[in-house]
Amino acid sequence: MNQVAPIITADAEPLPTPKKVFVKTYGCQMNVYDSQRMSDALAADGYVGTEVMEDADLVLLNTCHIREKAAEKVYSELGRIRDLKNERRAEGRNLVIGVAGCVAQAEGEEIIRRAPAVDLVIGPQTYHRLPDAIRRVRAGGKVVETEYALEDKFEHLPAPARKVVQSRGVTAFLTVQEGCDKFCTFCVVPYTRGSETSRSVAQIVAEAEQLAGAGVREVTLLGQNVNAWHGEGPDGRDWGLGQLLFRLAEIPGIARLRYTTSHPRDMDDALIAAHRDLPQLMPYLHLPVQSGSDRILKAMNRRHTAADYLHLMDRIRTARPDIALSGDFIVGFPGETEEDFADTLQLVREVGYALAFSFKYSPRPGTPGASMKDHVDEAVKTERLVRLQAALAEEQAKFVNSLIGKTISVLIEKPGRQAGQIVGRSPWLQPTIVDESAGRIGDIIDVRVHGTGYNSLFADPI
Ligand code: 5AD
Ligand code: SF4
């Protein structure tokens, strides 16, 4: 796969074979976006991507530190890559190993101490310096780059070529904000991604126009606290995400907009109004709550109560009645009793989530939660997670089943797994399988839902 043949010029001198990079991405959508931007920065330096690690001259792991399991996966993968590096060395070739992302930011040099085969450690704020860092590695030596320079990154990351955007499909991510100032007591993000920083309106609009020009129909705005985004609008006023969404909706070609991930404290009136008034803004909102117990919410430093959250969800539903609500939950935070957990189950039933993500609490080094008293037994966490996920699965099934018989619009994204099928995306994110005669990739068509799978839909063209 992705074998690159040497190019033969007129005088039959083979050009050097391009260097190949294999990027493996862990964690959230922002890491997916960052991996693309790292690939773009390396493409400008002559690298081509490969899907096969064994073919690569450079392996980059873009890592996640959010839970212990995610971080530990990286070290087991590094063990395998070290063996590959040794094989290469025996053949007289070099394989450069880089660790990027949140583990790189959190652990820095420690990664090279634990995994000496690693050549480069680069934090998320420094990707614009990646080609230079790799040149320094190739010149001999180890490189650790974890200094914050978010504005620099926003300013200097190269835009991908039109062809590259096209190869990535008709939906795209666009980072508008990075970092977090909320300091929830369970969370490493404020330490790995730094403080809340917004990209400028001009940068965001330019990138969105470029995506639209290459055929992208749906853009998902990304940020660790995306609804904390703000910036000076062309009218000289301070804009929030609501105003930004209205501006992006004016770009020809962009038919659908989404954003993730939000904090309840930053859902302002203008953003709720955008859900009411902006047809391009898809009726889907991921708004993590983490727990339904006020006691635990306080210990988590969420700075809202369960009632605040329910009230907010009501206001959003009133503004956009067909909205699908989604959330994140943590079970077994220190001190969580059976009663606290019952409050979480109660909240799940009250909201009626269309989709949700739930996790066992994982103590993270350096966060206040890790040193709290009354850590919950692992077996209790597991048992609560099973019960929570059963409740969430029921709510999710209710939601997809409510779509049967309805006419919905889907954006056609890719060929289906089976011949004769194509896969589109519903306004509420469910993959929707339709006969391929229904339209072409990039089309937005109306279909009638006739069946459901686990968070997927089967539909007929109308
Ligand atoms: N343990 C378990 N889950 C966590 N999350 C964040 N930090 C932790 C942790 N220490 C979850 C939260 C967050 C999602 C991205 O990951 O639910 O919203
Ligand atoms: Fe993981 Fe958070 Fe980093 Fe994303 S920002 S990769 S979820 S730790």
Automatic annotation (TrEMBL):
User: Start and end of every Radical SAM core domain?
Assistant: 166-398
Enzyme Commission code = 2.8.4.3
Pfam families (alphabetical): Radical_SAM, TRAM, UPF0004
Limits of the MTTase N-terminal domain = 19-139
Its EC top class is: transferase
Q: Where in the cell is it found?
A: Cytoplasm
Any one Gene Ontology cellular component term annotated for this protein: cytosol
An example Gene Ontology molecular-function term: tRNA-2-methylthio-N(6)-dimethylallyladenosine(37) synthase activity
The TRAM domain, residue ranges: 401-462
Catalytic reactions of this protein:
N(6)-dimethylallyladenosine(37) in tRNA + (sulfur carrier)-SH + AH2 + S-adenosyl-L-methionine = 2-thio-N(6)-dimethylallyladenosine(37) in tRNA + (sulfur carrier)-H + 5'-deoxyadenosine + L-methionine + A + H(+); N(6)-dimethylallyladenosine(37) in tRNA + (sulfur carrier)-SH + AH2 + 2 S-adenosyl-L-methionine = 2-methylsulfanyl-N(6)-dimethylallyladenosine(37) in tRNA + (sulfur carrier)-H + 5'-deoxyadenosine + L-methionine + A + S-adenosyl-L-homocysteine + 2 H(+); 2-thio-N(6)-dimethylallyladenosine(37) in tRNA + S-adenosyl-L-methionine = 2-methylsulfanyl-N(6)-dimethylallyladenosine(37) in tRNA + S-adenosyl-L-homocysteine + H(+)
Q: Which residues bind [4Fe-4S] cluster 2?
A: 180, 184, 187
Asked if the Swiss-Prot or TrEMBL record annotates the protein with the keyword Coiled coil, the reply is no
Q: What is its main location?
A: cytoplasm
Q: Which cofactor does it need?
A: [4Fe-4S] cluster
What does the entry list as the binding residues for [4Fe-4S] cluster 1?
A: 28, 64, 102
What keyword terms does UniProt attach to this protein? 4Fe-4S, Cytoplasm, Iron, Iron-sulfur, Metal-binding, S-adenosyl-L-methionine, Transferase, tRNA processing
The record's section on PROSITE patterns has: MTTASE_N, MTTASE_RADICAL, RADICAL_SAM, TRAM
Q: How is the cofactor bound?
A: Binds 2 [4Fe-4S] clusters. One cluster is coordinated with 3 cysteines and an exchangeable S-adenosyl-L-methionine.
SMART domains the UniProt entry points to? Elp3
Which domain of life does the protein's organism represent?
A: Bacteria
Q: Which family does it belong to?
A: Belongs to the methylthiotransferase family. MiaB subfamily.
Q: What does this protein do?
A: Catalyzes the methylthiolation of N6-(dimethylallyl)adenosine (i(6)A), leading to the formation of 2-methylthio-N6-(dimethylallyl)adenosine (ms(2)i(6)A) at position 37 in tRNAs that read codons beginning with uridine.
Listed under subunit, the entry gives: Monomer.
Q: What is this protein called?
A: tRNA-2-methylthio-N(6)-dimethylallyladenosine synthase
